[in-house]
Structure formats: structure tokens, C-alpha cells
Amino acid sequence: MLVLGIETSCDETAAAIVKDGREILSNVIYSQVKTHTPYGGVVPEIASREHLLKIRPIVDQAFRDAGKTLDDIDGIAVTSGPGLIGSLLVGLTYAKALSFSKRKPLVAVNHIEGHIYSVALEHPEAEFPALALVVSGGHTNLFWVESESGDFRHLKYKLVGRTRDDAAGEAYDKVAKLLGLSYPGGPVIDRLARTGNREAFRFSTPKITDGSLDFSFSGIKTAVLNMVKQNERLKEDPLRPDLLASFQEGVVNMLWSTTSKAITLLQPRSIMLSGGVAANSRLREVFLERTAAARLKFYYPCPILTTDNAAMIAAAGTAKLMRGEISEIDVSPDPNMRLALPERNFQNKRWKT
Ligand code: KG4
Ligand code: ZN
Hints:
The structure is a single chain. This protein is of the alpha/beta class. It is 42% helix and 18% strand. It has eleven helices and ten strands. A five-stranded mixed sheet has the order 3-2-1-4-5, with helices on both faces. The chain binds 5'-O-[(R)-(carboxyoxy)(hydroxy)phosphoryl]adenosine (KG4) and zinc ion. The site of zinc ion (ZN) has 6 residues, from helix 4.
């Protein structure tokens, strides 16, 4: 089965051709990062205008790279949410037009589910049930993932934890902006933190007292803001790498501490880490070490599949197509689309099968 994937939910225009949900024949990504850098973040209006200019050449390029034509494919998978409404509209409308004119099935895909499927492309053997932590600029979600088929063909999700405020990537981006670093902040902080002392500053872990497995990142961001207000020298070397390394350690510890609580409670067979922040070197290192100590399988995608891409959308769409889950041509974009509603009674494991 050959599927075209299209992704335009934020500031990447991406298209990919994937065979059988596993083999990437092409994976083209146009990043608008340079366009948005002067503004210190994504400007939605500019993002949609750029998608409009790029969508056609990027999709054409994906076909050229794969040595395939529209006639060869079995379906079109496209992100329909969550994301920026104007950006989503461009990809979805283009996909609908292709689907209608060529009579190819259309499959609307949730972007978050796409991130989970980025693991499927390299690790089809991954074991379920799994805990999937999706950490990106817009989301920080911890899912309990069960498979009806034992593999990626038919997954079911329960949301066991999510951020109460900022997403992890958002905290990276905001702290970077505060320190005058370029957008997006994650990769820059990751690089600069390597030379810093992770224990130079201590950030307390937010207390979530209702027994939920939720995250919170606005506290650590505000703590950095207050520290910098009190001591401007933190913005410069030699103190800046120490501040960044300590901030990063705080974020990574928060992500691990909640994940480890969920591991104890739910006892998954594997851990899957995905989303833009999963590219973070310290996060990978900590999760690698600690999942190994807990004798759990740990999966994460390679860098090109970690940040937004269309191969993961094609992979998720292929699973849907195989199950016959085809979308109507009038499907609407949903900026706030959810993959699963928050689960509150996981403590007594009533829902765990
Ligand atoms: O998944 P993604 O490409 O887009 C969204 O769906 O949001 O994630 C982008 C986010 C940005 O906040 C960016 O700063 C963060 O991922 N990011 C990183 C790293 N690379 C990207 N955060 C920490 N360390 C990195 N190496
Ligand atoms: Zn994403």
C-alpha cells in the first residue's frame, strides 16, 4: 500500500510517500523557521501564506524523489488537527482536491497520533501496551497505548497525563527568547547546555497534589524569568550555560518523574518518546539510562522523524486505511483536535484491560 502524507499543521510544509506504513520512499520538509525567526515565534498568518506557496512544489518533489506519480498511490493522509487553523486548511484543502480529482481515498490524521507513528517507521516490532510520551512545541501528553493487533495496525489510546499550562517545547522556546537566543529555542538550548553545569541551579518540581499524572512547565519558566530579572549576568557567559543546563535538567526530571510514576502504576512493556522535544540529547540520555535500569524497551525516532514531518502522517494514515477508516471529502480542520480525553480513574486501573 502506497500512501501520500501531507503535513501543514504549524510551520513546516511537508510531504512524503510511504510504502506499507513502514518504508519511506520520500520525505520532503520545507521549514519556515527563517521566515519566523525575526518575530521570535510562528506568526500564523505568515505561516499559512507560506504553506500556500510551498504546498504544490513540496508534494511534487515528494513524488519525484519516490519515482512515483499520483496514479500509483492508494490513498492520501493529511493532518486535520490539532494545529493552526490557517495552516491546517492549506494542507487539508490541497489533499481534498487531489483526492477528489484522482478518486483516491482521503484519510484525516491527528498530528499527535502521527508523532506516535514516527516510532512505527523505524521500530515496527515495538511492544504493547506502551506508554507514549509526546513532547512538542504545542503538546505534552502521556498516553497509554494498547494494540488490538499486537502491532501498529490498530492502536487505542488513553490520555493519562498532560500539561496543565505550557508545553515542554514552549517552555524551551520562551526561555530562549528571554535570554535573547534564536527561535526555536530547543535546539539552541540543547547545544549551549552541553557546556554548562546541570547542578548549578536547582528548580523545584511542581507539586501536582490531586494524584494525577499531569505535567506543569510554567513554574520553571517563571523561575528562570525571575532569576534573570534579579541577576542580568545570567544572560551572558560564563553563567548562561549553567542556567540553561540546570533549566534543561529540571524539564527532563519533570518528564521522567511523571513517566516513572506511570510506569510503576501501569506496568507497560515499552516506552515511546516522540515529538520535537524528543530530539533533546539530555532527555534521550536520561530516558535511555532509566528505562534500561527498569528493564523496559525504549523507542524514539531518528532526528528527521522527530520534528514535524509527513512520513509519520502517512504511516498513521496507512493504519487507518487498512482498517477502512476513510474520511469524508467535507472533513473540517480542527485546531483543538484530541486523540483521547483525559483519563482520571487510572489509579484503580479499572480501564486497564
Ligand atoms: O513536534 P514539533 O516539530 O512541532 C510541534 O508539533 O510543536 O516540535 C517543535 C518543538 C519546539 O518547541 C522546539 O523548540 C522543540 O520542539 N525542540 C527541542 C529540540 N529540538 C526541537 N526541544 C529541546 N531540545 C531539542 N533538541
Ligand atoms: Zn508536532
